[in-house]
Amino acid sequence: MAAAASAADGAAEPGMESEELPRGCGGEGGSPAAGRPPEGEERPEPPDTSVSNGGDAAGGRELVELRVIWNKNKYDVKFCLDSTGAELKQKIHSLTGLPPAMQKVMFKGLLPEEKTLREIKVTNGAKIMVVGSTINDVLAVNTPKEAAQQEVKAEENKKEPLCRQKVIDDSNTVIYVLLLYYSAVTFGSCSSSEQQHRKVLDKGKPDDVMPSVKGVQERLPAVPLSGMYNKSGGKVRLTFKLEQDQLWIGTKERTEKLPMGSIKNVVSEPIEGHEDYHMMAFQLGPTEASYYWVYWVPTQYVDAIKDTVLGKWQYF
Fold first, then answer.
1. Cβ(228)–Cβ(295) under 8 Å?
2. Are 235 and 255 in contact (CB under 8 A)?
3. Rounded to whole angstroms, how far apart are CA atoms 190 and 25?
4. Could you tell me if 107 and 122 are in contact, meaning their C-beta atoms sit under 8 angstroms apart?
5. What are the tens digits of pLDDT across the range 186-228?
6. What are the beta bridge partners of residue 299?
7. 48, 51, 169, 254: which has the highest count of C-beta atoms within 10 A?
8. DSSP 8-state assignment for residue 260
9. Taking every pair of C-alpha atoms in the chain, what is the biggest distance, in angstroms?
10. Buried (b) or exposed (e) across 162-191, using 16+ Cβ within 10 A?
11. Alpha-carbon gap, residue 224 to 237, rounded angstroms
């Protein structure tokens, strides 16, 4: 009987096992004997720890509950509030199998990898949007695009400049060709895009354009970017629907809802004489002829727009 009582005394009491830390907190969990005081000493009372956003506290670290959404799948996870965006990407990798380099993680804009969740003010119950595809999926999509682009380029190379085309011995044809040549010389076949830009820029800076901050890079604002011109000189606004992975280009007449994955490239350059604003183009098709130009984009949002639309894996 004494032996049985001794064994019972040595057994761990129910509820005394330490809770394992989630992998996102950097802990691998503790053994039941971890932190047990030497025999004969009283166990000190644990300090009173509070969690401001409702998360659990483990190992002195503050946890936050997140909902990660990727490819119509939802994952409810607990993660350390003092972990960085790069560490969150590793956690997402373990959940989805999506490599960190192929992830576009968004929380009020593109999630910065070097900052902690606390620094970007992630709260309990926050939704983390993840966009990305595996390398095999990306290559499968891009290979036909590259082939189509090469075919278009080959066809363009076959076309001779107007001045080198042979004139057929027919008076009507000669007049037609001369008219084409005159138009090319007068309006500039190689500088039509420059004339298009100049026509819009000559209207001047819009009165309701958003203020710019030169030398600073900021995340996308919570409101649409407005007060800009399109290539026709009409007002245009850009709305980034991160939860739908879409870019909405709105004008007075209509709103185009574009999947961000369909945008092939984003280019920009400062406006001469107004370097705190940019002219920016979204490539919607296989060639540069599909550029959708937007003028008077505040310079502080240029990098955020490119990162949000193209993501970190744009080189694929």
1. yes
2. no
3. 58
4. yes
5. 444 445 667 788 889 999 999 999 999 988 899 898 899 999 9
6. none
7. 51
8. G
9. 123
10. eeeeeeeeeeeeeeebeeeeeeeeeeeeee
11. 6
